[in-house]
Design goal:
Helix content: 25-40%
Number of strands: 6
Structural class: alpha+beta
Distance between the termini: 42 Å
Largest sheet: 4 strands, antiparallel
Number of domains: 1
């Protein structure tokens, strides 16, 4: 049997439907064309990005909803403890810059969703 990389297995699992759940985060909000620290949770889901899940099956892919929700829960806890602990009040309304990147990621994590890969809202119009 030929050697297969992890990426090959992920593609195979996605093709046959074994990795059915995505962990997605909202895009950054904007005000007058300026990116803000906070997320745009009202953006259509096809504008959200798949999270990379270290040590998992690929970019934000999970075999079950429970696996996705477990990872999401840990990510939220980590964001609260490590990334947002020193965030000022109303941080989501601040203009985004490199010094505030951890807050942007933390707020995105708080608003992450688990969604089925086949959800029609992920398709572009």
């Amino acid at each position: 049997m030929p050697f297969c990389t992890c990426r090959t297995y992920v593609r195979m699992f996605l093709t046959i439907g074994l990795l059915n759940w995505l962990l997605i985060i909202p895009p950054q909000a904007e005000r007058a064309g300026v990116p803000l620290v906070g997320p745009d949770t009202s953006a259509p889901l096809n504008q959200w990005q798949a999270m990379r899940a270290p040590g998992k099956n690929g970019p934000g892919t999970f075999p079950t909803k429970a696996d996705c929700e477990n990872y999401r829960s840990k990510m939220i806890d980590d964001a609260k403890i490590r990334l947002l602990v020193d965030a000022p009040e109303n941080v989501e309304a601040l203009p985004s810059d490199t010094g505030r990147a951890k807050w942007t990621f933390g707020l995105g994590a708080l608003n992450a969703k688990c969604i089925e890969r086949s959800d029609p809202r992920l398709k572009s119009n």
